[in-house]
């Protein structure tokens, strides 16, 4: 019998996950289908009960339910628990187990072209949900420093305090961090600044970026934010948010099927959907 997979969010119409996972199910000849469901916060518990009752294979969880889903699950893996957010759930013999593949997805996408973070000086821009998943995951990779720059430095301090993994870390304002960008080997932009339609906005001044640095932006619409364009002009290597999106999906697919899928195929599929160029 065909297995159901799903993504729960609100709104959900824009999600590219159905396209990505349905293509993989047919490519690997798995009898399954992935559907988007728009779920209001007050209906989340019922939605999970319904999915459980019909024997869902697994599902993704997106904004705004990544934290509020946790009480409705049977188990949550330690990284997701420390982050306080779940984006992937698997049904293991009737037990719903939650994972967070956002941080590990970012790391896997990064290390495909930037092999090691160990010994590197890293700056994360932003202190929201995405920053938290990325920061906690990178903290385990033993960077020399893992600093955060945020509009509200107190939010960055709270995030640093919550991290269960030991790492040297300072919180800065965006202005302070902008003046010392030359210090960093890796810079990861996690805020929504520069996302379409506000494509002319910059989260931080890039004048002090060093030429040898790696600069990532988790935004993929546009494919190159102004921040990435300017970092490239300064000679930095850049990566957009497609890699994190594709790898978080690949890790979810692996949790559900034990198959680590063809990420090149996934990337091409997503880029085609976005109207970008495939490489
Ligand atoms: P997500 O869960 O997608 O990461 P979020 O939790 O809303 O989104 O986090 C948004 C992040 O972007 C925060 O770091 C926020 O800064 P504050 O902690 O000061 O709120 C940052 N952010 C959002 N809009 C911003 C803006 N216009 N200027 C500067 N920072 C902004």
TrEMBL record:
Xref: InterPro entries: Aminoacid_DH-like_N_sf, NAD(P)-bd_dom_sf, SDH_C, Shikimate_DH, Shikimate_DH-bd_N, Shikimate_DH_fam, Shikm_DH/Glu-tRNA_Rdtase
- Superkingdom as given in the UniProt entry: Bacteria
Q: Which reaction does it catalyse?
A: shikimate + NADP(+) = 3-dehydroshikimate + NADPH + H(+); L-quinate + NAD(+) = 3-dehydroquinate + NADH + H(+); shikimate + NAD(+) = 3-dehydroshikimate + NADH + H(+)
**Keyword Cytoplasm attached:** no
What are the protein's UniProt keywords?
Amino-acid biosynthesis, Aromatic amino acid biosynthesis, NADP, Oxidoreductase
What Gene3D superfamilies would the database entry show? Leucine Dehydrogenase, chain A, domain 1, NAD(P)-binding Rossmann-like Domain
Gene Ontology CC terms, in alphabetical order: cytosol
Xref: SUPFAM superfamilies = Aminoacid dehydrogenase-like, N-terminal domain, NAD(P)-binding Rossmann-fold domains
Q: Which GO terms describe its biological process?
A: amino acid biosynthetic process; aromatic amino acid family biosynthetic process; chorismate biosynthetic process; shikimate metabolic process
**What Enzyme Commission number(s) apply to this enzyme?**
1.1.1.25
User: What pathway, per the record?
Assistant: Aromatic compound metabolism; 3,4-dihydroxybenzoate biosynthesis; 3-dehydroquinate from D-quinate (NAD(+) route); Metabolic intermediate biosynthesis; chorismate biosynthesis; chorismate from D-erythrose 4-phosphate and phosphoenolpyruvate: step 4/7
Instruction: List, in alphabetical order, the Gene Ontology terms for molecular function in this entry.
Output: NADP binding; quinate 3-dehydrogenase (NAD+) activity; shikimate 3-dehydrogenase (NAD+) activity; shikimate 3-dehydrogenase (NADP+) activity
Report domain Quinate/shikimate 5-dehydrogenase/glutamyl-tRNA reductase positions. 115-193
EC supergroup of this enzyme: oxidoreductase
Q: Which residues form the Shikimate dehydrogenase substrate binding N-terminal domain?
A: 7-89
Q: SDH C-terminal domain location, by residue?
A: 241-268
Residues annotated as catalytic: 66 (proton acceptor)
Pfam families per the record?
Answer: SDH_C, Shikimate_DH, Shikimate_dh_N
Q: Quote the record's binding site residues for shikimate.
A: 15-17, 62, 87, 102, 220, 248
Query: Where is NADP(+) bound in this sequence?
Result: 126-130, 218, 241
Q: How does it assemble?
A: Homodimer.
Q: Which family does it belong to?
A: Belongs to the shikimate dehydrogenase family.
Q: Which HAMAP family match?
A: Shikimate_DH_AroE
What does the record give as the function of this protein?
Involved in the biosynthesis of the chorismate, which leads to the biosynthesis of aromatic amino acids. Catalyzes the reversible NADPH linked reduction of 3-dehydroshikimate (DHSA) to yield shikimate (SA).
Name this protein carries in UniProt: Shikimate dehydrogenase (NADP(+))
From the broadest rank down, the organism's phylogenetic lineage runs: Bacteria, Bacillati, Bacillota, Bacilli, Bacillales
The UniProt gene name for this protein comes to aroE
